Amino acid sequence: MTRFDAVVLAGGAARRLGGADKPALSVGGRALLDRVLDACADAGRAIVVGGRRATARPVVWAREEPPGGGPLAALDAGVRHVGADAVVVLGGDLPFLDTATVRGLVDALDAGPAEAALAVDADGRDQPLVAAYRTEPLRREIALLATEHGRLSGLPLRLLTQELDLIRVSGRPLASFDCDTWEDLAAARARIREHGTVLDEWITAVKAELGIELDVDTGVLLDLARDAAHGVARPAAPLTTFLVGYAAARAQDGGPDAVAEAARKAAALAARWAQETPDGTEAG
Question: What is the pTM of this model?
Fold first, then answer.
């Protein structure tokens, strides 16, 4: 049995965005929906409730009845396709959601008898669309609400969560940040370009675009690029890091250790190069 599946709610009218196709809007060059799907990469099955579109990973498509019936109706449509004992439920507009947050929610659910683990934002508010649920209690309460109200369309999610045995998980401050307005989208785009985050965001985006699952010490590569630029010539930096990557790919394991070893050799060469002077003597 898969540990958990994921349901991503990617429908809705996006009225505050003028009816724009919100899940397709990009932050850091990647669609919001793809960023969310990347965060739940550990899920056995990803179910997206909303209109079909190109996605970075294979998904199961579902649609609420009627379309635009709200999050509870969308959740009902999605959970029908879940095969795991637990399901992570996510909004489709979370640019800063990460794998660690998703894993943390599932771990919290596994650790005790609770029926749901909800993320709590910086203001202490429950986030039912950044949460992990036990599948059967979730289905049970959805069915009871449908019977009680005669419909699910238009009902708020709080009717569901108030009936479940909950635990609350404090996550990263921005994990539940969503893009409901153009101002939110602009803030997210500005955030990823800040000095402390831009490099990690860029590396993550490149790896996703190229289909690479490889965690390397970026500090080693940056130091190598600096040494090649200063000790040899500025164009040597990108060319050297390319050659290191190529050499690592040709190595037997091709993993992070291969990258580190190739970078070590290239850095040593750059250091020897920098010590030489044009008259044949050595600097220092």
Answer: 0.81
